[in-house]
Amino acid sequence: MKFLATQCGGEYPERSIPIVLRGKPMSYSRAAFAWLAVVACAVLLCGVAARADEKSSVTSLFDGKTLEGWKKTVFGGEGDVVVRDGCIVLETGNPLTGITWTGKYPKMDYEISLEAKRVNGADFFCALTFPVGEDPCTFVVGGWGGGVVGLSSLDGFDASENETMQYLEFKNDHWYKVRVRVTGGKIEAWLDDKHMVDVETKGRQIGIRPEVELSRPLGISSYMTTAALRDIKIRRLDGKAK
Fold it and tell me: Is the peptide bond before 136 cis (omega within 30 degrees of 0)?
């Protein structure tokens, strides 16, 4: 028989406390284990349901085979836009090449994500223009000679001039994960899961540079650079259907 110490220094024998579960006696430890199993199953089911809801709110904007839903942006001097090896390739333009989305899109409470790489060139390989309510904004990746990352524009200042500006070294033929989140009062952006931008938008003037005006409301462009894009998706954050 096991003995348990009391707070006063004495000991008393440990006894199982019988608990009846579905008509059968069960010790306290077995009953506790059973209830823990029930709770664990409930948590697991909730997690599965949450992942299902999240998946249902995601829309793929690229099927890996065609430009369905996209149109080539007519900047003037643009390079070819082709689908090759499961990617959208923006050939080098003079100076810009891009694509603009023609389908439905949210204006608030969403995330847009993609993978992008610079095939060759020395400037931005992903300028992602997106809606912030009724206003446009652009997340620039690799601009101003190949390294500037930030939002264009905030209060009239582009990504090289405002507080979102950071400088990174980018490699050719390397895929980078790009993600932008737009919620009420905030714009956030990530590169390879590194949090690059976190801006409160209340009272700020949100805009874009005139060169990418034709990318509105949702588009991606490159500057004197050949770029490749894939896995383009939008996820609703407001619980609405896609």
Answer: no
127-142 pLDDT, tens per residue? 999 999 999 999 999 9
pTM over 0.70: yes
Q: How far apart are CA 204 and CA 156, in angstroms?
A: 10
Phi (first) and psi of residue 7, to 5 degrees: -60, -25
Rounded-to-integer distance, Cα 198 and Cα 181, Å: 9
Pair of tokens at residue 154: 């905030």
What top-level class would CATH report for the domain 60-236? Answer: mainly beta
Take residue 19 and report the two structure tokens written for it. Answer: 């608990």
Cβ-based neighbours of 107, under 8 Å, separated by 6 or more: 131, 132, 133, 134, 182, 217
**Backbone CA torsion sign across 88, 91, 96, 97:** negative
Q: Are 216 and 144 in contact (CB under 8 A)?
A: no
Can you say how many angstroms the Cα of residue 7 is from the centroid of all Cα atoms in its chain? 55
Please choose, from the candidates 77, 59, 100, 98, the residue with its C-alpha nearest in 3D space to the C-alpha of residue 232. Answer: 59
Q: Which two tokens stand for residue 1?
A: 């028989």
Q: pLDDT digit string (tens) for 37-57?
A: 544 444 344 443 344 444 559
Q: Which two tokens stand for residue 191?
A: 């590169």
Domain ranges of the chain: 11-56, 60-236
Q: State how far the Cα of 46 lies from the Cα of 104, in Å rounded to an integer.
A: 30
Tokens linked to 8: 């006063």
